[in-house]
Specification:
The chain has 224 residues and is mainly α. The protein contains ten helices and no strands. The longest helix is centred in the N-terminal third of the chain and has 30 residues.
Length: 224
């Protein structure tokens, strides 16, 4: 019984130490303000490198709030965008890229930023037969990129993504056409079969998407 009480007391003491320590760290974090831009930037970089990406987002807010004209902001935005792409958090990556474009539209490396935005969208397709509007929007972004930055070193990469997106679009349109045929709607099926021809020169070259059986009903349902 005595050993049990001793263990219980030790456990409670350790728990209290942990709670007070966490509260102390949280309080210390809340009270941080009025720091140099380089302090916030280095702290953000450390948090990213140690895997605390959410903390890095908060630290960027401090950097941006206290130093709105700092030259470190543009680099911080790109670092955060790439970090979120690596973590497959593409919406957050796009948020930082949009912020960069809004603030630094005349930057010399704006082609790189727009390439990253296309890359984030391209990698953001969770499923092969979904995100029809995102495919259309990204193809439009690619067309603008190739038009505005024909000599960019990222143009070949963007062109490769463009080809794969057109294949995805053709696959999606073919799935919709087949579904309309099954529903006995020949006019709608013909319309989407025409879209397939416009998306890809030879539809026979496109391999059917391999959809797992447990996702099959949901992929078809998502179209309507």
């Amino acid at each position: 019984m005595g050993n049990y009480l001793k263990f219980t007391n030790l456990f409670l003491a350790a728990s209290l130490i942990f709670v007070f320590s966490a509260c102390s760290q949280k309080s210390e974090k809340i009270q941080e303000f009025d720091k140099p831009a380089l302090y916030w930037f280095n702290k953000m970089a450390d948090e990213i490198s140690t895997g605390f990406l959410e903390d890095a987002d908060d630290t960027y807010i401090s950097l941006e709030s206290e130093h709105r004209n700092s030259p470190l902001l543009s680099t911080a935005l790109l670092i955060l965008a790439n970090a979120h792409i690596d973590e497959e958090e593409y919406e957050l990556a796009n948020f930082y890229l949009d912020e960069y474009i809004k603030r630094f539209a005349l930057s010399k490396n704006i082609d790189y930023v727009r390439y990253l935005k296309i890359k984030a969208n391209f990698k953001g397709f969770a499923y092969d037969l979904r995100d029809q509007q995102l495919i259309e929007d990204t193809i439009s972004q690619i067309e603008d990129f190739i038009k505005n930055f024909p000599r960019s070193p990222y143009t070949p990469l963007v062109s490769t993504m463009n080809s794969r997106l057109y294949m995805a679009k053709a696959t999606l349109d073919k799935e919709i056409a087949d579904l309309y045929e099954r529903l006995d709607k020949p006019k709608a099926a013909k319309l989407y079969n025409e879209k397939v021809k416009k998306s890809w020169v030879n539809p026979e070259e496109i391999e059917p998407v391999d959809v797992p059986f447990y996702r099959y009903p949901f992929e078809r349902d998502i179209l309507f």
